[in-house]
Specification:
The chain has 453 residues and is of the alpha+beta class. It has 4 domains: 1-124, no CATH class; 126-219, Beta-Lactamase, CATH 3.30.450; 225-294, Helix Hairpins (Orthogonal Bundle), CATH 1.10.287.130; 301-449, Histidine kinase-like ATPase, C-terminal domain (Heat Shock Protein 90, 2-Layer Sandwich), CATH 3.30.565.10. The chain contains 13 helices and 12 strands. The strands form 3 sheets. A 5-stranded antiparallel β-sheet has the order 2-1-5-4-3, with helices on both faces. A 5-stranded mixed β-sheet has the order 7-9-10-12-11. Bound molecules: adenosine-5'-diphosphate. The site of adenosine-5'-diphosphate has 22 residues, from helix 11 and helix 13.
Length: 453
Amino acid sequence: MSRIHFKVFVLVAGASGAEWLLGLLAALPGGEDGARVLIALVAAVALAFLVSRRIARMATEPLASVAEVARRIAAGDPEARLLWNLHDERDAVASIVNRMADQVQSDLGATRRNVQQLEAVMGEMIEGVLVLDSSERIVLVNNAFRELFGVWGEVQGRPVLELIRLPAVDDLLTRARDSARPVFEDIDVRGHVARTVWGRAARFPSAGPRAGTLAVFHDVTEIRRVDRVRRDFIANASHELRTPLTSIQGYVESLASGPMTPAEVASHLAVIQRNAHRMRDLIDDLMDLSRIESGGDAPDPSRVDVVRLARTLVADAKPRLARAKLEARVRSASAPPAWADRKALEQVLENLLTNAIRYSDEGAAISIDVEPRGEMLEVSVEDTGIGIPDEALDRIFERFYRVDASRSRAIGSTGLGLSIVRHLVQAMGGTIRVESRLREGSRFTFTVPRAPE
Ligand code: ADP
């Protein structure tokens, strides 16, 4: 029933009720006076009822408004205010509620700004961040964490092991939970690309009841690789220098220990000389490598006729080729000039030619080709020698790597030649690659820029 319908109903019902009551009273003995008294009584009761209802409404209506505004403030409505102007003590209540609303608004703004700043920092960090609550459930992770561990989708509230099945990460977090100090460890992440990740985890706060764990992960694959290469390099270089030195020491002691025939002395001296040369070659190569790696001499490019340079090198190698019973020739009749550092280019060609001679058996053939390829010249040194096994092809440009260390050492090689060659080629703006088949031969092909027309 609507309000209007209800009022009409009350009026009609009230009017007919009064008529009925007056009739009843008039029928009573001494009816006229008694009726007046009764009417006054009923009127008084009705008035009292209406007044009390009004008072009750005056008391509850403001409370309902306050409740409504409080509900809107709690729901984050920035406009929620009590707009009263009643000139009594209720205005004071309104003012307190409104001040409270202002404070909530300003706190909310500050919190939002803090969250935005935190999100920006976390988003820009290259370290992966993971935060767990006190029941080991994920509170948040940043993008770097997702990328490091290949995690996508919703993570909040999930246990870590469900997302990344790496017991090492779980172990790190468990140790952090049970330790008063931060814990750290290198973690191997296998996946599309194998990586090493350094993880550091700590409970927070550091004192008092634990609220959760904070872990930070940093990709250290490259740092660890460089470190390993450096350690291997020092170990290898020391070993390579020690071997000839030990030999020299032994022969010198033997010479000093007593009389010898002149032939014995000569043979001892020859061994000492050979080993001294070997040490010198090694030190020269090490110095070359270190100079080239650290940026080296500024390249001094000029126009170089590569075909002519190759012919000169082959002619110079004639005695060595004859001793090894090998044939070598430059197949290209001519080629456009290269724009390269002549000394560096000569060192590259000489190294590749020397290797082709060293790693070929009697009767093998060596050929050099020079071909223009767009902006570059492609130079290849090919032999029909012993070849390189497939599994070694990726490694032969590494420092000290040798397929057959005993054969290489016997012929006085250092294992640094191809490493130097690759650095030199790259410094000239070119690239180098190798193709080879075991017992069939090898072809090393490098590029250098062509000289401008
Ligand atoms: P090394 O001083 O030992 O020759 P390099 O760096 O020049 O060192 O070469 C590394 C290794 O690559 C060699 O020890 C050898 O095993 C292999 N190698 C290089 N050139 C050839 C080639 N033309 N044929 C076969 N093996 C080769």
